[in-house]
Amino acid sequence: MNFKNYGDYTAQALASGFSIARVIETSHQQYMIMTEAGPYRAQVAGRMANLALDAEDFPTVGDWVQVRMPENQADMATIERLNARTSVFLRKAAGRRSEPQLVAANVDWLLLCMALDANFNLRRLERYLAVATASGAQAAIVLTKADRATDLAAQLASVAEISGAAQVLVCDATKPSGLSELQTFMQPQLTYAFLGSSGVGKSTLINHLMGTASLATQTVRASDSHGRHTTTARQLLVLPSGSIVIDTPGMRELGLLAADVDATFEDIQALAQHCRFSDCTHQHEPGCAVQAAVAQGALSADRLASYQRLKQERAQNVEMRGKARENAKIDRMFGSKKQMKAFRQSVKARRR
Ligand SMILES: Nc1nc2c(ncn2[C@@H]2O[C@H](COP(=O)(O)OP(=O)(O)OP(=O)(O)O)[C@@H](O)[C@H]2O)c(=O)[nH]1
Ligand SMILES: [Zn+2]
């Protein structure tokens, strides 16, 4: 990893006596970071935690941070500053909670993984593309388990219809040469995050890419002075090729929060230019060019339904998040909504 290439940040860090590090693992506000002097456990400085308003204000895997190094490698480093991110990938936490979960930062390429077996699902791929478009990272599609493809040619054709500019790579982890397209694609020094639902074969791909450099040699268990290691959701690894990868296991549901649905459905956007009403919802309006395309068979009804579903889900989650933020602000100022009401009552009473 290149710790020198951070221009202003490196200068700023050095001026403050801090070191530049990259977050390689997070778990319950505990961090594992990689520094020029090797891996360290780290925690966020109290001052920084106090200023943090959102989940986004805390470091996540892939973040470049400025740290105060401990005297002793067994002790924790302190994360003092978070460097600006080139990309950040968010998802809505599982369930009804609208809190965003930071998945990874400073990712150059999101590798959207989809298995070619019975779990192949174009609508899910559209969802991943929408999230990727809003992340700031570039996206490529990795089709896994080619040995189990139901109909490879037809599947590739249907992916090509929705993939836009994203490159499509096909992998088969059961064959020695089955990862060559992916290996040719990946460049040293760049950061790749594998994204996909549970079981698509992300860990299998990463293990193959790691080759003999086993996961154990990469993780920093040795530096955990307590001798235990809580398994975490995300991990940043450096491959023998020099590429940097972030695994994101266990993603059962990718809730839309930051997502650019319109950019992902450029075909529908282009058609919508010809709708009679500029605010057409493409549902029942007269003169709707999108519905006309469906009627003519130029646009699949499934794809239109997928677009509308994703638009609606995103709007709902953004609204929920707005409310959650407001509540968080109230909690910070008053402790709780109840205390805020009590405070307002007391102000009123005093006025009388
Ligand atoms: N047939 C076949 N099976 C594969 C291939 N790649 C992975 N598998 C199998 O698919 C299953 C899931 O693979 P994992 O690599 O654990 O999937 P994952 O995406 O990391 O899953 P999570 O860790 O739950 O996110 C395992 O049983 C693998 O052996 C492949 O190319 N072909
Ligand atoms: Zn319309």
From TrEMBL:
InterPro entries: G_CP_dom, P-loop_NTPase, Ribosome_biogen_GTPase_RsgA, RsgA_GTPase_dom
Domain CP-type G: 96-254
Keyword RNA-binding tagged: yes
SUPFAM superfamilies the UniProt entry points to: P-loop containing nucleoside triphosphate hydrolases (SSF52540)
Keyword terms: Cytoplasm, GTP-binding, Hydrolase, Metal-binding, Nucleotide-binding, Ribosome biogenesis, RNA-binding, rRNA-binding, Zinc
Residue intervals of the EngC GTPase domain: 105-252
Residues the entry annotates as binding GTP: T144, K145, A146, D147, G196, S197, S198, G199, V200, G201, K202, S203, T204
Annotated CDD domains: YjeQ_EngC
Free-text cofactor note: Binds 1 zinc ion per subunit.
Matching HAMAP family: GTPase_RsgA
Similarity comment: family membership: Belongs to the TRAFAC class YlqF/YawG GTPase family. RsgA subfamily.
Entries under NCBIfam families matching the protein: ribosome small subunit-dependent GTPase A
Assembly behavior: Monomer. Associates with 30S ribosomal subunit, binds 16S rRNA.
UniProt protein name: Small ribosomal subunit biogenesis GTPase RsgA
Organism: Lacticaseibacillus hegangensis
